[in-house]
Amino acid sequence: MSGMYRDRVRGPKKRRLSFQRKVQLAAAALFNGYAAGFQKGKIFTSGSKALCVPVLNCYSCPGALGACPIGALQTALGAHHHFPFYVLGTLMLFGLVLGRVACGLLCPFGLVQDLLHKLPLPKVRVPKGLDRPARYLKYIVLALLVLLLPAFLPSDTGVTPPLFCKYLCPAGTLGGGIPLLLADPALRSVAGALFSWKAAVLAAILLAAALVRRPFCKYLCPLGAFYALFSRFSLCRMELDAHRCVQCGRCESICPMDIRVTQDLSGPECIHCGRCQEICPTEAISRSLGRRTAGEKNGPEASK
Amino acid sequence: MRSALRTRDSSLLRLGLLVLALVFLGVGLARGEQQEVLAKAVRICLECIGIG
Description:
The complex is a heterodimer.
Chain A: H1 3-6, H2 19-31, H3 35-40, H4 69-78, H5 85-97, H6 101-106, H7 108-116, H8 128-134, H9 137-152, H10 163-167, H11 170-183, H12 185-190, H13 193-211, H14 215-219, H15 222-229, E1 236-240, H16 250-254, H17 261-264, H18 275-279, E2 285-289
Antiparallel strand pairs in A: 1-2
Chain B: H1 2-30, H2 33-41, H3 46-49
């Protein structure tokens, strides 16, 4: 333990609702503020839906006030067949300013995973040998399902469906599919094999979230993958003061992304949730704007 | 020294990417791409909810 900070060691702060949870709840309410939509079974149809939100929030969720950037990206490539200047520019701005802060603090599906992980069920740590390669899956999902296949897959109609949304996205099923089907008997009557598939995918991811911390963010989310590519350049950063760090390991044990906090803080896998900052007994971890942590690594090596 | 150079390179790249993002956004807005996003987002996406 570093001598001069030995006396400053304090126990973890006791709070009813963490900073992360407050921001997550506020963001979920903000992005899904059309509460009447859930009652009516209708989606919001005003001009704000031309704006992409920085998170995976289905635009067919009855409450959604903005557009899902991943859905919009696939539509530009697969339906309109042009380079997605507007959506890509927006996503790059989000990546450069927020980076994966969007995953840790703003994403409603991240909130769902965090809450599910609080269920009193046995917790599982994915073995390193499986965890590390599996983290590359989200980049494959981004490249194949979101970018390449919508852009280049031939289609009889000339419109390639949004493949990620259609076959994989759990946020669309949870936020859009289930509320709309509950509210609209006509939609219920046409739900078939595809809905069963999507419901099964959602159930598997939700079950995994109860056992493993943030499985969708670690392994499958294409938006997280996109932001991870920008982590090196993101203005929002987490900083570690090595002189204050006493190597107690609390930060690494609480990290939902299982990163080596003392070595790879603010790397591509760090979602800036701030739990390490809250639990650090010497206040060695802080948020900052613009500065770059020395010694950071890129890629899934940032995980343990 | 190497660390300082890396930080400077990183800042330059960040600035370059920021300019590129703003150019993309400007071109997209000029082409009216936001209307395409709006048109998609105000209709229920049947694929997204697992119907079509």
